[in-house]
Amino acid sequence: MTKRKNPLFFILFIFLISFFQIDTASSKSIEAQFIGNEAFRITDGNFTLVTDFPYESGVYGYMEYNFNFAGATQNILALITHRHLDHFAPLLFTEQNWKIIGPKEVTQQLEQNKIIKMTKAITYGPINIFPRETTHANTEHYSYLVKWHGKSLFFTGDTEDLEVLKELPVLNALFITPWFYRKAKMNDMLPEAKKIIIYHHQDNDIVPDCKGCIIPLQDEIISIQ
Ligand SMILES: [Zn+2]
Fold this sequence. Notes:
By secondary structure, this protein is of the alpha/beta class. The protein has one domain (27-215): Ribonuclease Z/Hydroxyacylglutathione hydrolase-like (Metallo-beta-lactamase, Chain A). Helices cover 17% and strands 28% of the residues. It is built from 4 helices and 12 strands. The strands form 2 sheets. Strands 5-4-3-2-1-12 form a 6-stranded mixed beta sheet, with no helix packed on it. A 6-stranded mixed beta sheet has the order 6-7-8-9-10-11. The longest helix is centred in the N-terminal third of the chain and has 21 residues, at 7-27. The chain is globular and about 70 Å long. The structure holds zinc ion.
């Protein structure tokens, strides 16, 4: 046997290592657990994003929920679309040690050190967030494109602005309300998405023309690939 190292073998070795690292970074799985209304707890096991949460349980006749706030203290970012209480409850948020991205109408009343500044492209932890200003009733409202471990997620919020569905990348998951889904489908404006996840629905809701859509039950966990 010779002791001479084969440089080709070495190069191959480095190539395999780097390939493996890239592969694990982009294939790291993300799980989304449905809380209620438009609230999901989304995590990669280390970092957690909550959408339109904490909200006021059962308000306006929408979904009640159970959530273990005591077990959710580390690395949590709340991403809020608008100020309505079925999407955000300021007092409940104040009790948490979480960060927040949301419209000024939501954040102006909160502790400044919890607020991540709203810009066109925000990087926080492992996540890139691209807010898009949209309309909903008389509120300041944002929809969000989120990129996380190579996956693209889009959250419509309560808007019905078809414009916001234009120029999106191919999505790993589209989170959309039943009524906006219907409108987008009728106008042939649905973006390409591996998973369409309906939110802000009723328990046991039936969404017409939504074959293959995921209509989650509360606490259901959806794997985003
Ligand atoms: Zn709502």
